[in-house]
Design brief:
CATH superfamily of chain A: Signal recognition particle alu RNA binding heterodimer, srp9/1
Structural class of chain B: alpha+beta
Number of helices of chain A: 2
Main location (chain B): cytoplasm
Strand order of the largest sheet of chain A: 1-2-3
Strand content of chain B: 15-25%
Number of strands of chain B: 4
Strand order of the largest sheet of chain B: 1-4-3-2
Family (chain B): Belongs to the SRP14 family.
Protein name (chain B): Signal recognition particle 14 kDa protein
Helix content of chain B: 10-25%
Number of helices of chain B: 2
Number of strands of chain A: 3
Distance between the termini of chain B: 56 Å
Distance between the termini of chain A: 34 Å
Subunit structure (chain B): Heterodimer with SRP9; binds RNA as heterodimer. Component of a signal recognition particle (SRP) complex that consists of a 7SL RNA molecule of 300 nucleotides and six protein subunits: SRP72, SRP68, SRP54, SRP19, SRP14 and SRP9.
Order of helices and strands of chain B: EHEEEH
Radius of gyration of chain B: 20 Å
GO molecular function (chain B): 7S RNA binding; endoplasmic reticulum signal peptide binding
Helix content of chain A: 25-40%
Largest sheet of chain A: 3 strands, antiparallel
Largest interface: A-B, 34 and 37 residues
CATH architecture of one domain in chain B: 2-Layer Sandwich
Shape of chain B: elongated
CATH topology of one domain in chain B: Signal recognition particle alu RNA binding heterodimer, srp9/1
Order of helices and strands of chain A: HEEEH
Radius of gyration of chain A: 13 Å
Structural class of chain A: alpha+beta
Oligomer: heterodimer
CATH class of one domain in chain B: Alpha Beta
CATH topology of chain A: Signal recognition particle alu RNA binding heterodimer, srp9/1
């Protein structure tokens, strides 16, 4: 279960994984205030992508990605997946 | 697992974050939801649920208490809440030589 070193790679891989099978993918956020860190995991139970950070600047990025995935989930099937 | 309305979920989530400020973690899970209310039946049984494409399940837990909600519209309140509470992380420390880059000029 690799922890990605760069946010860019993680975000790209996460979105790609989600788009391959939206129903299987789940996003887990684990926040520890006492330790001051945040971990995000995106998995489809076969592939697992993780990113961990203790930097405040990453919170915004993580929260944006989280929001983006949520938006993809609640939107109708248009947009990314043009399936019949 | 307590299933709540979106607003109550936000309230409870706030409470979870506040409780865990001194110790513990808050785990939030997001997953696309297709509207089924019964488990996947064994083969031979008809599946009768309305497939919904525009919902997702949001769960939160502090290790003991678990809450969840079904989201069908993007809620800005939720993103704001996350950002507001996850504020205990280190601020980026600019190296001291460039600390006055944004000073008024």
């Amino acid at each position: 279960m690799p922890y990605y070193q760069t946010w860019e790679e993680f975000a790209r891989a996460a979105e790609k994984l989600y788009l391959t099978d939206p129903m299987k993918v789940r996003v887990v956020l684990k926040y520890r205030h006492c330790d001051g860190n945040l971990c995000i995991k995106v998995t489809d139970d076969a592939v697992c992508l993780q990113y961990k950070t203790d930097q405040a600047q990453d919170v915004k990025k993580i929260e944006k990605l989280h929001g983006k995935l949520m938006r993809l989930m609640v939107s109708k099937e248009s947009g990314a997946m043009e399936m019949d | 697992m307590v299933l709540l309305e979106n607003d109550s979920f936000l309230t409870e989530l706030t409470r979870l974050f506040q409780k865990c400020r001194t110790s513990g973690s808050v785990a939030i899970t997001l997953k696309k939801y297709d509207g089924r209310t019964k488990p996947v039946p064994r083969k031979g049984h008809p599946v009768n649920y309305e497939p919904a494409d525009n919902k997702c399940l949001l769960r939160a837990s502090d290790g003991k208490k678990k809450i969840s909600t079904v989201v069908s519209l993007q809620h800005h309140a939720y993103s704001n809440l996350l950002r507001a509470h996850m504020d205990g992380l280190k601020k980026k420390d600019k190296k001291s030589k460039s600390k006055k880059t944004k000073a008024t000029q």
